[in-house]
């Protein structure tokens, strides 16, 4: 264990000599041998002839692959902590079948070991979603995977609202408080959005009349959050595996006009024309699971490639801890094995999830102005024998491999993973 470091030091670093895959929107595959320069936590230059100012720490990436940090757009990191049992199970508020006012970042434990595992796999940004026991699970957040408190880790919150269709809300009907059929789940969503529309109308009318707002209830807070979804301010993360549930998700989005992001999309290949017609993004996964319930009967590692081949914007997810987050690049490798284009698989780990979540102004590629989240790989991340050797997050070195993985502690010391 090395000596403590100054945590207040400037977040400057130069990653030099590596084969850089920028993954920026103009990226067409291949690499450029060069430098990624980060000053005060942001990328300022990328290219073959970038001068390194005196005093800037250097990471030698000669002969290595250099990529942006990976983005997992659907996890339960921190709210479903591994190895904690009921003590770490903060992912589903089963007493609230329509809990839009619930916020994931109020339940995140930064000490969840999954965050260190994420760094070891080159994952530097995650979306944290509530579970799928309720029809409306709560608000989602985007976090960096290193930090002493959730407030220090937050990239954006709220990011959107999580909703579930299919088996999960049916079998977890909140002690009889929630619906127990697919038509009941759809009706509950319509009721919730109708309440949001009514809330907005009454609020605007009261403001126009100069009146005082009435007492605020939990139902009002739910409606206020859903009103932001209807206004296009927040994403609608829709859990849907089965083809008919995917079609219901599209039907509801058409009816209410919100920004739909489909999650799981296990049978997306069975409604490919519908998805292509709408141009909907797809967060696909987890891939490395068994067919553990009926709606996974058509689970296939070929789905990401089929959707991407049809022109859809595809991102991959582990749904951590359903599949441990360190297997995100392995999931991409298996998708390539089953037909996905390798370059598209790298986009599915970086630029695509950042775009789908509206975070591409901060993460997902190596371009000036974006966060200095840079990962040095021993080789192609889609080769399961490759490993992340050095992870820079916001210009700060937070993970390194030298025969074993070490994560920078919040006291400034390096600790074994």
Automatic annotation (TrEMBL):
InterPro entries: Amidohydro_3 (IPR013108), Metal-dep_hydrolase_composite (IPR011059), Metal_Hydrolase (IPR032466), Metallo-dep_Hydrolase (IPR051781). Pfam families: Amidohydro_3. Residues 223-399 form the Amidohydrolase domain. It comes from Kineococcus endophyticus. This is Amidohydrolase.
């Amino acid at each position: 264990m090395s000596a403590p470091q100054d945590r207040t030091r400037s977040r400057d670093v130069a990653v030099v000599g590596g084969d850089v895959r920028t993954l920026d929107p103009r990226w067409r595959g291949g690499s450029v041998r060069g430098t990624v320069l980060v000053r005060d936590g942001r990328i300022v230059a990328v290219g073959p002839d970038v001068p390194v100012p005196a005093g800037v720490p250097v990471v030698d990436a000669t002969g290595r692959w250099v990529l942006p940090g990976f983005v997992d757009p659907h996890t339960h990191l921190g709210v479903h902590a591994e190895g904690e049992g009921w003590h770490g199970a903060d992912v589903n508020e089963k007493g609230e079948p329509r809990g839009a006012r619930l916020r994931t970042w109020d339940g995140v434990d930064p000490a969840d070991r999954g965050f260190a595992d994420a760094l070891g796999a080159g994952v530097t940004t995650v979306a944290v979603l509530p579970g799928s026991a309720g029809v409306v699970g709560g608000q989602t957040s985007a976090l960096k995977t290193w930090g002493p408190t959730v407030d220090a880790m937050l990239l954006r919150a709220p990011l959107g609202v999580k909703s579930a269709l299919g088996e999960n809300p049916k079998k977890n009907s909140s002690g009889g408080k929630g619906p127990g059929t697919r038509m009941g789940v759809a009706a509950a969503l319509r009721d919730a959005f109708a309440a949001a529309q009514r809330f907005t109308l009454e609020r605007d009318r009261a403001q126009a009349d100069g009146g005082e707002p009435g007492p605020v209830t939990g139902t009002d807070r739910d409606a206020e959050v859903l009103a932001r979804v209807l206004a296009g301010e927040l994403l609608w993360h829709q859990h849907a595996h089965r083809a008919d549930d995917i079609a219901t998700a599209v039907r509801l989005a058409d009816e209410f006009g919100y920004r739909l992001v489909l999650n799981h999309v296990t049978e997306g290949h069975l409604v490919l024309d519908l998805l292509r017609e709408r141009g909907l993004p797809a967060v696909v996964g987890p891939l490395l699971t068994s067919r553990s319930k009926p709606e996974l009967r058509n689970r296939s590692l070929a789905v990401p490639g089929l959707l991407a081949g049809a022109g859809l914007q595809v991102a991959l997810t582990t749904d951590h801890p359903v599949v441990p987050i360190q297997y995100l690049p392995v999931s991409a490798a298996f998708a390539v094995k089953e037909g996905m284009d390798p370059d598209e698989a790298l986009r599915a780990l970086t630029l695509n999830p950042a775009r789908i979540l509206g975070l591409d102004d901060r993460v997902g590629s190596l371009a000036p102005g974006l966060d200095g989240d840079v990962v040095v790989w021993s080789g192609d991340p889609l080769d399961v024998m490759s490993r992340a050797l050095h992870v820079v997050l916001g210009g700060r070195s937070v993970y390194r491999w030298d025969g074993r993985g070490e994560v920078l502690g919040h006291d400034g010391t390096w600790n074994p993973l």
